[in-house]
Amino acid sequence: MAVGRKAVAPAHAALPTIPFVHTLNADLHSHSTRSDGTLSPRALAQRASGQQVQLWALTDHDDIGGQHEAAQAARELGLDWLSGVEISVSFAGETVHIVGLGMDVDDVALHAGLARIRLGRAQRAHDMAEGLAMVGLQGAYEGALRYVSNPDLVSRTHFARWLVETGVCTDFGSVFRRYLSHGKPGFVDHRWAGLGEAVRWITQAGGLAVIAHPGRYRFTPTVEFALFSEFKAHGGAGVEVVTASHGLGDVRKYAEMADEFDLYASRGSDFHSPNESRLDLGQLPDLAAALRPIWQALTDRVRPGRR
Ligand code: AMP
Ligand code: MN
Ligand code: MN
Ligand code: MN
Question: Does the predicted TM-score (pTM) go above 0.85?
Answer without folding.
Answer: yes
